[in-house]
Amino acid sequence: MNDINTRLHQIPKEKQELLEAILSDLAAIDNVQAIVLGGSYSTGMATETSDLDIGIYYFESEPFDISAIQGIAGKYAHDSSPTVTGFYEWGPWVNGGAWIHTQHGKVDFIYKNINQIQTTIDNAKNGVWENHYEQQPPFGFSSIIFLAETACCIPLHDPKGIIAALKSQVAEYPPKLKQSVIQQSLWAAEFTLWYAEGIAAKNTQDMYNIVGCLTRAVKSIIEVLFAINGLYPIGDKRALIVLEQTENRPANLTNKVNSILCCEKDRIADNVLLLRDFFNETVGMVKGAYRPYYKL
Fold first, then answer.
1. DSSP code of 80?
2. Does residue 255 fall inside a structural domain?
3. In DSSP terms, which residues pair with 97 in a beta bridge?
4. Which end of the chain is less packed: N or C, by CB atoms within 10 Å?
5. Could you give the number of structural domains in the chain?
6. Which is more confident, 91 or 9?
């Protein structure tokens, strides 16, 4: 509780007052079950320009009225009409909300389907997760982000204890999820690396394919590093900053990633070699938890 209070007190006074006013209006909407503060303010990584990210929770069988959301968004917008979507217009994971430019900065509403969140948590406990590349840049939306958001969010309105119950379920990183992420992500990285090595061996300068492989494989390895530290990645922004504070990570992690991804056309094969070293180092860290599905 003290940590939550500290994070709330980090919000500038004018934004606190804005948040309280919006909260009061949202809580009065029929079928709004809970409201949370998410984003960088919930993780303690906010800056002076950070948005207020407000999660609005509902049951799938009893959704709230989008027109009510539109009314509140319009009330606080200081420019032209704010963007307000219907359910699942953004995509299957970030399933809707609003962008609002207010007098005191940007505010985002994010719709949160309680049933979908619960299903995602249940799946994760059984080692089932997925990544939707088309949902958001740069590397897509991982279903594990639902667990991260649940763990980090600050409840602002939770009369039925829904957020508290969800939080209790993600307090510990599921062992089956850890093994699944290690296995699937390292295989994805190894297969991608094998493909990149094949192109580089032909002495080509196919930047489109090789650079794509480099970034894709590094993304998979980063997923593994979060898993072995028992951390839910909340997104790609600041991922390396978070990992640099963990105990289980390759030495000089950020420098290694930067070296792999800073490419020159005539030296692209060197980047593939650096990726191989990074992959091998990470495999050594999982202590036998990874086995390739096939011999490449």
1. S
2. yes
3. 110
4. N
5. 2
6. 91
